[in-house]
Amino acid sequence: MHGADDGRERTSVCVIPIDELPDGLIVTDGFGRVLAVNRAAVRLTGVSVERAVGKDMDEVFPFRDHDGRDWWKALDPDGGLRTRSRVPERPLHLPGGQEVYVAARLIREPARGGDVARVAITLRDGGARARLERSRADLVSTVAHELRSPLTSVKGFTATLLARWPRFTDEQKLVMLETVNNDADRVTRLITELLDVSRIESGRLELHRQVVDVPARARRVIAGRVAAGEPEDRFRLVAGPDLPEMWLDQDKVDQILGNLIENAVRHGRGTVTIDIQSVGWGAAVSVRDEGEGIEPELAPRVFRQFWRGNSRRRGGTGLGLFIVKGLVEAHGGTITVQRAPEGGAEFRFTVPTGTPDFA
């Protein structure tokens, strides 16, 4: 009976307007007449909806491959096997020279073996793809450069020890083995950073929340720096009263604080101050130094991959601040950089109190 509850779970279908799609979309009929164009396609091609709808595809969107061949004619919706439904993505050009990545789906009626009723064409920005490829090339280049030095050292010292072990004193052997150990640690840190970058970019970063005492974690990071040889009076920790109970990933909080404090020590001067205060809905942590600071026009760049600034004491891979930003945002927080009151750089991140993660 109509309207009766038969105990089955009902589902609703959500129809998303094509203008809300992130990629460009052009829909034609089986003859190549344009039926619809979304906002992203207009932005990528510069062809307005009014100019495109009702016109032939090859007239308003004359895509060409690298050899100048007409993509639509090569597509030939009516040709080929009647089971054909997908056309793989490939880079194409418009007359203005802009590059777009184009793929297509042939919609048949009936679905199996029928005539082509519509063609759905998707477009993606070729410039964005090129930037991504350049970023990956930069990553490979950076990794190769950063790995070469410690691995060359490890290989050199181990080969020397194996070939001439009896000729060295115990003290000389100890120095060489300590160098090998330090270089192995450097390689391990680089691999860890690369894994973090991969997880951040792919959205696979997992948080294991627990109650975290942020001031205690900061004291632990400072103690590690002091044990490594930094003077204790180089650091100043300020913790406000009534800090909220923070449900965070403790290891990632250590990583955030460690990277920011190391950045302040390496690139700044004077006292490094870690200031932790309640902001009502969470906590705000500032790490500031008394060095040269960061110019305002450079502030948007500091959280990009491979950014190292103009400091002579660069070091590192340039991935640390990118990872810090990803870890803070994974907690639902934000991070900014500005000039500190003492003239140096001040990195300030805020994180909400969070909730226990029982997943």
Automatic annotation (TrEMBL):
Reaction it catalyzes: ATP + protein L-histidine = ADP + protein N-phospho-L-histidine
Pfam families: HATPase_c, HisKA, PAS_4
Keywords associated with the record: Kinase, Phosphoprotein, Transferase, Two-component regulatory system
Subcellular location as annotated: Cell membrane
Protein name in UniProt: histidine kinase
Record's keyword annotation contains Phosphoprotein: yes
One term of GO molecular function: phosphorelay sensor kinase activity
Membrane-spanning residues: none
GO terms under cellular component: plasma membrane
Key word Kinase present: yes
Known EC number: 2.7.13.3
Domain Histidine kinase stretches: 142-355
Domain PAS: 18-57
